[in-house]
Amino acid sequence: MNVLVTGAAGYIGSHAVQALLRAGHAVVALDNLSRGHRQAVPSAVPFVQADVRDSERVLDVLRSHRIECVMHFAAFAYVGESVEQPLLYYDNNTLGTLGLLRAVARSDCRRFVFSSTCSTYGVPDTLPIHESAAQSPINPYGASKLCSERMLRDLRPALPDFACAILRYFNVAGCASDGSLGEHHEPETHLIPVLLQAALGQRDKVTVFGTDYPTPDGTCIRDYLHVEDLVDAHIGVMQALAPGAEMIYNLGMGRGHSVREVIAAARTATGRPFHVEFGARRPGDPPTLYSDPSKIRRELGWKARRTDLAQIIETAWRWFRDNPRRYG
Length: 328
Ligand code: UDP
Hints:
Layout: E1 2-6, H1 11-22, E2 26-31, E3 47-49, H2 55-64, E4 69-72, H3 79-84, H4 86-106, E5 111-117, H5 140-158, E6 163-169, E7 171-173, H6 191-199, E8 206-209, E9 221-222, E10 224-226, H7 227-240, E11 246-251, E12 257-258, H8 259-270, E13 276-279, H9 294-300, H10 309-322
Parallel strand pairs: 1-2, 1-4, 2-3, 4-5, 5-6, 6-11, 7-10, 8-13
Antiparallel strand pairs: 9-12
């Protein structure tokens, strides 16, 4: 299939490009490089530096490359930043999806796979989180993604044969197992990369955001999924998308780990000491999020293959250790 990957120079997008190429698909990579890294996309892959809000430019790409499916990863994804700068998130994430869909609607492309998030659920009433759980985000990041979900779900019946998949990610972790791709955000705020930077001596400490949550050890619980498992699910979903279909799946391991458990796994994976301090809660963080991934397992046969957190972190550690400047 001819696939347009938006946000292709980002962490998840770059891993998706690699998996699509390995599965024999033709890929066009699009990224505005505001946060992505050009080196994360192989030079043999057609690369378009453009913003998804630029509908005319995107339409030109969709038509000239006869794109059959869009995988839309381009987005900002920091909960904390979204609380401080909500409009940035509605602009980049929600209006980004709007601009892209405007182009898709005018093109012949009728398959769309959207990166959504468990942040759309807010603080869930029950755990694990099933796709039918109420969506009531508690931060602008989750809300900006929920608006995009809604747009897609409204567009689908209005556009003949348009099929969309909404994939709600839990926490994505790890790097390419062959060491070829990594994770580089500026600034880095995600827990696992921050721990690895501390293990490398690039940070003097890591702060745990909150120890008074209603969880067994007082720290937040998240469901960490290896990035290669995540992108494999995208390819399976893309292939299963029948004309006019709407598919909604949670993507997670189906099991939660607390911040303290992630720290212990990072110590095992790196074998290096680092200093941890305990601080206040970070605004916008729900206490516990972990998925019920049984729907995609039942319907498409997908499940996480990498289930050991220390081993997942080790794939990232190898890349961080071998590329101490990351893509810099
Ligand atoms: N976290 C932390 N210290 C950090 C970064 C993150 O304690 O320096 C916590 C954060 O509060 C959350 C979990 O680790 O409970 C995962 O955070 P991350 O930013 O990696 O992902 P998010 O769940 O926000 O998407």
